[in-house]
Amino acid sequence: MLILAFDTATDVATSALVADGEVLGERTSRAVTLLEDVDALFRQAGARVHELDALAVGTGPGSFTGVRIGLSTARGLGLALGIPAAGVSTLDALAAGAPGAVPVIDARRREVFVHGAVLAPGELEVEAGRIYVGSGAVRYRDVLATAGADIPPDADERHLPRARFHAALAERFGPADEVEPQYLRLPDADRTRS
User: Fold this and answer.
1) Inter-residue contact 57 to 85 (CB < 8 Å)
2) C-beta separation of 91 from 58 below 8 A
3) Dihedral angle, C-alpha 142, 117, 165, 140, nearest 10 °
4) Considering the entire predicted model, what is its pTM?
5) CB atoms within 10 A of CB 80
6) Angstrom distances, CA of residue 51 to CA of 26, 56, 99, 133, 138
7) Which residue in 113, 116, 115, 153 sits closest to 136, CA to CA?
8) CATH dotted code for 2-91+160-191
9) What are the angstrom distances between the C-alpha of 130 and each of 89, 112, 150?
10) What mean pLDDT do residues 85-110 have?
11) DSSP 13
12) How far is CA 134 from CA 104, 151, 155, 157, 161, in A?
């Protein structure tokens, strides 16, 4: 099965082309260049778009705009190509890339996303000596390390939700327009509505 996987929920977008578990190509960039990355992946692998069997897309949590870019792209490609898609939690992909680690995503506004919650970094119950990965672990390194967290260096690839893990974790494929985002809080526009 040929799967195109991507995640645009964090500051670094990742994409991968995976055939039967083998990574044919992988890229990191910004969400705004996602389609350029997809084109480059197909050229690099010598594959054609019509050979694609399914999509695996990151559903967040993360940047509201970033999550929407990923889902909109998946919905457009799914509809145009007539292929199914599966949503995969960005936190689950981070965890898959660092087995045993706690994934933490920067939620902005001095908060972090963890499984099932958005909270201030100081409110996170840190398990001393355990590894913490993700953009939130990098941004709030001092707070988490002071509480006993072990955080890999900033450039460590375990901090990225690599799309190859989205392809591996994808299970329930269905219509792309039925993949739902994982928002743990309202977007700014909804919070400021009077």
Assistant:
1) yes
2) no
3) -10
4) 0.93
5) 10
6) 18, 15, 32, 34, 38
7) 113
8) 3.30.420.40
9) 21, 17, 6
10) 97
11) E
12) 5, 9, 11, 9, 8
Among residues 170, 168, 139, the alpha carbon closest in space to that of 154 is found at: 139
Mean pLDDT of 58-81: 96
Q: Does an H or E element contain 2, and which?
A: strand 2-7
Separate counts of helices (H) and strands (E) for the chain: 7, 10
Q: What phi and psi, each to the nearest 5 degrees, are found at residue 47?
A: -100, 165
Structural domain boundaries of the chain?
Answer: 2-91+160-191, 100-157
Q: What is the pLDDT of residues 119-167, one digit of tens each?
A: 999 999 999 999 999 999 999 999 999 999 999 999 999 999 999 999 9
Alpha helices in 16-63 (DSSP H): 34-45
